[in-house]
Every structure is written in C-alpha cells, then in structure tokens.
C-alpha cells in the first residue's frame, strides 16, 4: 500500500539523504564498538567451550570432592570473568536504541526517546479504552512535537498472570496484548469525555463505560465499525464532525485495530498490533543496517501520519 503512496515515497527519498548526513556519521563509532564486543564474545565462546570440556573431563572429581580446591576456584573465577566481560554486551540492546531511535524520530520533528516510559494508572483508566491487565509494561517511547503539535508515543504489552502449577510454581506472566498508545493534543477545547470503540455486534448491549452514554451519529458507514459513548451528546458531535468521521475511517487503512478517547483536550489512541515496533539492532546485526533503519522509519511515518490523516494540526478543519 505504501509503495503506491507518493507522499510516503517522497519522504522515503528525503530520509535517504537524512540518513547519510545525520545518522550514519553518528552511528559509525557505535558500530565499531559493536564489532569489538562481537570479537570479545567470540573469544569468550571459545573459552567457554574449552572450560566446559575441562569441566566435563573432571566432573566426577568435582562432585566427589576429589578435585583440588585450586581447580574449583579456577572454575568459579572463570565464571565471574565471563560475566564481567559480558556486562557491556548485555546492555547493548538498550544502548543501541538510545543511540539510534532519537536520530530517526528527529527526522519528523523535535523528539526525545525514553526507554520504558512511565504511564500513570490514572491516565489509562481515564481513557476507558485500555483493558485492565494484571501487569502492563512499556518498551519504547517518544515525546515531542510533530508539525508543532505535542505528541506522545508509547509501545506497551499487557500481561496476564498465570496460575502456578506443580511443574511451574513460580510467578509468571503471559502476553495478552501488544500495541501502541498514541496521545496528541487537540486544537479544540472540550470539558468532558468521548470514546470511540470497535463495534462488537450483539455484545454492545453489555458494554458499560463510567458516566458515559451511547451517542448516535448520522454516519451509517461509521457506525458499522464503531460505537460512540460520551458524557455529553452535544460535545460528542462537536468533536466528531462528519469530516472527522471520514478521517477516522481512513485511518483504519493503516491501523485496522484502533480505538479513540477524547478527554482533557487530548486524543488518546490505543492501537493494537502484533509485531514489535522500533527494533533497532541486535548484537549480531550492524546498527547501521539500512533495512532495519528503513523499517523503523516506516513505523514512525505511519504513526505520525495519524496527525496528518485526522488533520489534528489544522484547527479550521476540525
């Protein structure tokens, strides 16, 4: 779909120049560091293989206590040395994102990157479009301005607590949902709350949202896909104009599973996705990889296009 989008193609070519001038020079020193770590990792692997062979040949002596104390201390010391050498590599994943992702995001505007950004329970509950999970964790986040409009992005995973069993008595969680929270300021001012959720068919009659009542809109096409609830019928129609409804339907071409909540003069969106976004570089992949960087560029382009599609930065069109 994007390959036939002239706006995306134009941005893609513009980003290619930005990559050469602003991203590649910054990442080259970091890439040299990655290669040095990779060489260290290879040496450690060879050492581990040799040490494991030594241990296997003396395993009887180790467990029987016949082996000398110096050999035991040698084994313990080797483990500690390996751990010490691996510490920089263990932090590489986080540091690679902290170096790369702000560079890509700043192509679109002035943004800061935050690893695991905090989200208050108050904000999530107030939106009324975020399911209650046993545990909710965030991964990558951005905050800043796109075309002058304040925007916050946070990737999240909703986890469900698993019942302990005899085979697995430890506390564990299973991923139940994954997605993106996208929060943008609105040009309109309003006092209450209006939410737009997916149409659940016959299950709509069981839906209940605190202090909100169902709103009927004059758009049969929109109401086939969504249900609207608000604490003010007048304000809901003030926000959800016929033009805005068309924009919201167009947004489903990019994100098939998206819901909206309007409150505190902001638009809060819950975008459910299956794949992980913003995966910068693993330890065995160059951080300068054009393929990975292009993927992240496309993900951010789609997210920031929400502002363009809904015309959030054009007050006169709202």
Give the structure's gist in a few sentences:
The protein has 318 residues and is α+β, with helices and mostly antiparallel strands. It has nine helices and nine strands.
Question: What does the radius of gyration come to?
Answer: 26 Å
Distance between the termini: 27 Å
Low-confidence stretches: none
Class based on secondary structure composition and strand pairing: alpha+beta
The oligomeric state is single chain
Q: DSSP strand (E) fraction?
A: 15-25%
Average per-residue pLDDT, rounded, comes to 86
Number of domains: 2
Order of helices and strands: HHHHEHEEEEEHEHHEEH
Biggest pleated-sheet summary: 9 strands, antiparallel
Tell the overall outline. Answer: globular
User: Which bin fits the share of residues in helices?
Assistant: 40-55%
Across the major sheet, the strand order is: 1-2-3-4-9-8-5-7-6
Number of DSSP-assigned strands: 9
Counting DSSP H or I runs of 4 or more residues, the number of helices is 9
List the helices and strands and how they pair.
Elements: H1 6-57, H2 59-64, H3 69-90, H4 92-105, E1 109-115, H5 121-127, E2 135-146, E3 149-162, E4 172-185, E5 194-198, E6 213-215, H6 220-223, E7 226-230, H7 233-239, H8 242-251, E8 258-263, E9 266-272, H9 290-310
Antiparallel strand pairs: 1-2, 2-3, 3-4, 4-9, 5-7, 5-8, 6-7, 8-9
Helix pairs in contact: 1-3, 1-4, 4-9
């Amino acid at each position: 779909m994007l390959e036939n989008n002239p706006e995306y193609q134009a941005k893609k070519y513009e980003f290619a120049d930005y990559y050469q001038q602003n991203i590649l020079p910054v990442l080259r020193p970091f890439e040299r560091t990655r290669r040095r770590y990779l060489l260290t990792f290879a040496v450690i692997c060879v050492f581990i293989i040799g040490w494991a062979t030594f241990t296997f040949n003396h395993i009887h002596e180790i467990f029987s206590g016949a082996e000398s104390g110096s050999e035991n201390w040698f084994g313990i010391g080797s483990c500690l040395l390996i751990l010490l050498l691996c510490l920089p590599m263990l932090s590489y994943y986080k540091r690679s994102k902290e170096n790369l992702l702000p560079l890509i995001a700043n192509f679109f505007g002035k943004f800061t990157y935050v690893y695991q950004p905090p989200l208050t329970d108050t904000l999530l509950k107030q939106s009324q479009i975020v399911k209650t999970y046993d545990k909710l964790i965030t991964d990558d986040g951005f905050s800043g301005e796109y075309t002058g409009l304040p925007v916050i992005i946070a990737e999240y995973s909703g986890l469900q607590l698993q019942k302990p069993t005899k085979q697995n008595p430890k506390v564990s969680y299973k991923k139940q949902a994954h997605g993106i929270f996208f929060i943008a300021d609105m040009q309109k001012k309003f006092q209450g709350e209006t939410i737009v959720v997916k149409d659940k068919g016959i299950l709509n009659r069981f839906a209940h949202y605190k202090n909100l009542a169902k709103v009927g809109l004059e758009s049969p096409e929109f109401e086939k896909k969504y249900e609207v609830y608000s604490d003010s019928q007048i304000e809901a129609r003030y926000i959800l104009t016929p033009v805005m409804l068309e924009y919201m339907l167009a947004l489903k071409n990019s994100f098939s599973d998206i819901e909206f909540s309007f409150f505190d003069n902001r638009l809060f969106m819950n975008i459910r996705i299956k794949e992980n976004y913003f995966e910068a570089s693993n330890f065995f992949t160059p951080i300068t990889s054009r393929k990975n960087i292009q993927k992240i560029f496309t993900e951010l382009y789609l997210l920031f296009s929400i502002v363009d599609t809904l015309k959030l930065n054009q007050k006169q069109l709202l």
